[in-house]
Amino acid sequence: MARKPVQIPSGAVPASTAPHPPVPSPAPSSASSPAPSLARAAGVNIVSSSHLVSVRSPELSEFEFGLNTAYNAYSRWVVRCMGAAGVRDLTFLDVLVLHHVNHRGRAKRLADICFVLNVEDTHLVTYALKKLAGLGLVAGERVGKEATYATTQAGTEACARYREIREQCLTSNFTEGSEENLEIGELARLLRVLTGLYEQAARSATSL
């Protein structure tokens, strides 16, 4: 029995050729967009002194807050690392002076120690040297009108133990040649630049 051809009304489009409704775009995946808890709100600065934030550089206030907290953490680490190395009751500056006197195994003048460590008050370094000498870690020798300082055997051994603990507790978190190390190197360069800016700003403030 022959099938009758289907009559398509004028203007109608077969279902197979009718245009499909637009397919909604998929919602962006959470992997490609930052988590709300990690996204930084516009105009919000992580600072400790909001009254000092300048429109010229709000980032500088964020840097200063980070510098303050990093300094306190670093100074705490230096003192505790030296304590673990067997030399306790030293201040942050005491440890810095000891390490620099031991640097390259050469005797150093008071003025040079202050210059390299960027310490303006020489009395602070003089006191640290006397304290280290009293502990048998540093010895002074007069050359002409000036005295030079060098680490004793005990001082050199203390610095070596400090290095061992530093390798174990701190630098073990880093990988040689990593991107993180490159960023730290760039940060060190930026800190040297900012040191010069702060030095000039201090001179300007002194002349006001």
Tell me about this structure.
It is a single chain. By secondary structure, this protein is mainly alpha-helical. It has a domain at 69-174: Arc Repressor Mutant, subunit A (Orthogonal Bundle). The protein has 6 helices and 3 strands. β2 and β3 form a beta hairpin. The longest helix is centred in the C-terminal third of the chain and has 28 residues, at 179-206. The model is unreliable at 12-18 and 26-39 (pLDDT under 50).
Structural class: mainly alpha
Count of distinct strands: 3
Give the CATH H-level superfamily of the domain at 69-174: Winged helix-like DNA-binding domain superfamily/Winged helix DNA-binding domain
* Name of the CATH class of the domain at 69-174: Mainly Alpha
The backbone outline, from C-alpha atoms, is globular
Mean pLDDT: 87
How much helicity do the residues have? Answer: 40-55%
CATH architecture of the domain at 69-174: Orthogonal Bundle
- Radius of gyration, in Å, reads 33 Å
What is the string of SSEs from the N terminus onward?
HHEHHEEHH
Largest sheet: 3 strands, antiparallel
What is the CATH fold-level name of the domain at 69-174? Answer: Arc Repressor Mutant, subunit A
Q: In what order do the strands lie side by side in the largest sheet?
A: 1-3-2
Strand content: 5-15%
**Number of DSSP helices?**
6
Q: Name the poorly predicted regions.
A: 12-18, 26-39
How many angstroms separate the termini? 111 Å
